[in-house]
Amino acid sequence: MIRLLRQPGNARLAGVFMLALFMLSLAGCASTPSLSPEAARTLPQQTLLDDVPFHGQRDYQCGPASLAMALGASGVSIDVDTLIPQVFLPDREGSVQPEMLATVRRHGRIAFPLEGSFEALLAELDAGHPVVVMQNLSLPLWPVWHYAVAIGYDRPAEEMILHSGTTPKQRVAFNRFDATWARSDRWAFVALPPGDLPAGGDVDSAIQAITDFESVQGAEAALPAWNALAERHPRSAMTRFAQGNARYATGDEDGAIIAFRAATHADTELAPAWLNLGLLFKAQGNIERARHALEQAATLPGPWQSRAQEELASLEQGEESPR
Amino acid sequence: MKRLSRLLSPLLIAALVIGSLPAVAAAPNSELVGTAAVLDASTIQQDREHIRDVLAREDVQRQLQLQGVDADEVQARVAALSDAEVSEMADRLDQMPAGASVVGALFAVFVILLVTDILGLTSVYPFTR
Question: How far apart are CA A150 and CA B84, in angstroms?
C-alpha cells in the first residue's frame, strides 16, 4: 500500500476513490429503511423463526439452498441435491427468478411474490413466513446476485436475521441489507401450502399466484387456497369465480353455483361468471335460471359474448323442439 | 433437434388452430370458462397467444438445454412456469440476474467494493461485517 502511494499510481488511487464516490452517489445513501407509523406501532420488536431448517450452499448454489429452506419450513422436506437439477443453470452458475417460483409449484407449494417493501417483508416474518429474498451483494456494475432466506429481525439492534450462504442466522444491519436487496428491486417471495396466505399483498397478485399454481398442480390442490382467499376477500368477484371453477373441476357442482353466484353479486359485469353459471344451470336442466344467467352474459361486450349468445340460442331451440 | 422442431412446429400450429375451431363453430358444449383464460383475457387473439406460448415454451426448453440443464429435467422445469414467466424467459433469459459474476479481478474494483462494504452499501467481503 505504501509503495503504491509513493509511485505515480498515486493519481490512479485518487481516481479510484473518485470513482468510488461516484458509485456512492449512484447507489444513494445508506439510510435505515423506515417503517410507516402504523407498522412501527403494530410490528413486534423482534421475531425469529427458529424452526426454519438451514441448508448450506456449495459453490454458487444459493438458489437451490434457499428453496430447500423455504420448502422445508412449509413442510416439504427436500435436500439441496434434489433441487439442483430442477432450478440451477450450470452455465450461468445461478438460478433465475421465474424458475425459483416454478420450482416451488412443482413441490406442491404456492409461491407468492411480495410487493417489495421493507415493511411487507417484516410483516411476513411476523406472520411466521420465512421470506426468500434476492440481493445484489455488490454494485450494479459488478453484480453478485444472491438468494437468501430472511428468518427474523431485531428492531432495537436494527438487524435482519438471514439463513444465507454458508451461515445460519446471519445478522445483517438493516441498512446494509436494504441496500443490497434494493438492487433486485426488492424481489422476494414466500412459499406456502395451499390454504395459507401471505400476510399482506393485494388480492390480484394472490389470484395470479394461485392460478399459476393451479395450472401446474390442478384444481383439487388449489381449492383450499381459493377457499382461503375467498374467505379473506368475500367481495372479490374474480376470487369467487376461480373458486367456482375449482369446485366444478372437483365435482362439486352445487358449490360451484354458489361461488359463481357470489361472483356475479360482487361484480354484475363479470361476463364469464354469468356464462359459467348459465352453463351449469343448463346442464342441470334448470332452464329458467340458465336463461337469466346467459342473457346477462350475452349483453356484456367482451370475448365471451358470442359464446353466451350461441348458448342462449341453443337453449331457446332446445325448448321449442323437445325431443 | 432443429429439424425436429421445424417439422413439429407447423404440425403443432395446425393442431392448435384446428383444436380451437370447434369451440367457436360446433354444437354448444358445457365446458366452463377457465380462470386462467379470463386472467389472460385481452383476448380476441387468444388462439394466437396460445400458439405463441407453445413456441415460447419450446424456445425456453432449448435455451435451458444450452445452459447445461439435463435433457430429462428440461421439460418438467418448463412445465412448471406460467405463461407470463415463459414469455419473459424466452425474451430475456440472457439478461436475467443469476449467480455471481467474477468480482475482484481488478484492484480498483476490490478497493471500491471494500469502501462500499465498509459504508454498509454492499456485502461482498465477509471480513468487513
Answer: 27
Instruction: Give the amino acid at A88.
Output: F
- For the segment B8-29, what is each residue's pLDDT rounded down to a tens digit? 566 555 554 444 443 333 344 5
For chain A, say whether B43 makes contact (Cβ under 8 Å).
yes
- Give the total number of structural domains in chain B: 2
**CB contacts, 8 Å: B33 with chain A:** 245, 272, 275-276, 304, 307
In sign, the C-alpha dihedral spanning A26, A32, A36, A39 is: positive
Contact A107, A132 (CB under 8 A): no
Give the span between the Cα atoms of A87 and B98, in whole angstroms. 11
Q: What is the pLDDT of residues A187-233, one digit of tens each?
A: 999 999 999 999 998 999 999 999 999 999 999 999 999 999 999 99
**A267 and A162 in a common domain:** no
Do B78 and B43 fall into the same domain?
Answer: yes
Q: Which of residues 220-249 of A touch B (CB under 8 A)?
A: 238, 241-242, 245-246, 248
- Which ipTM value was assigned to this complex? 0.79
> If you count residue pairs, one on A and one on B, with CB atoms under 8 Å apart, how many are there?
184
**Residue that is last in its domain, among A165, A192, A219:** A192
State the first-to-last Cα distance of chain B, in angstroms, to the nearest integer.
50
Q: Are residues A188 and A207 in the same domain?
A: no
Distance of CA B11 to the CA centre of its chain: 22
Greater model confidence, B38 or B3: B38
Residue indicated by cell numbers 476513490 = A17
User: Could you tell me which of B98, B16, B116 has the C-alpha nearest to residue A98?
Assistant: B98
Among A78-92, A133-147, B28-42, name the one with the lowest average pLDDT: B28-42
| Owning domain of residue A220 | 203-320
CATH number at A289 reads 1.25.40.10
In the predicted structure, residue A285 carries a pLDDT above the cut 60: yes
Same domain, B57 and B7: yes
The answer to whether B93 and A96 have CB atoms below 8 angstroms apart is yes
> Residues of A numbered 250-289 whose beta carbons fall under 8 angstroms of chain B's beta carbons: which are they?
272, 275-276, 279-280, 282-283
Residues in A closer than 8 angstroms to B39, CB to CB, are 207-208, 211, 238
* Burial profile A260-276: b = 16 or more Cβ within 10 angstroms, e = fewer: bbbbbebeeebbbbbbb
Q: Tell me the C-alpha distance between A14 and A225, whole Å.
A: 58
Task: Assign A17 to helix, strand or coil.
Answer: helix
pLDDT, residue B117, reads 85
Q: Does B66 touch chain A (CB under 8 A)?
A: yes
One-letter amino acid for residue B31 of the chain: E
Please say whether the beta carbons of A123 and B100 come within 8 A: no
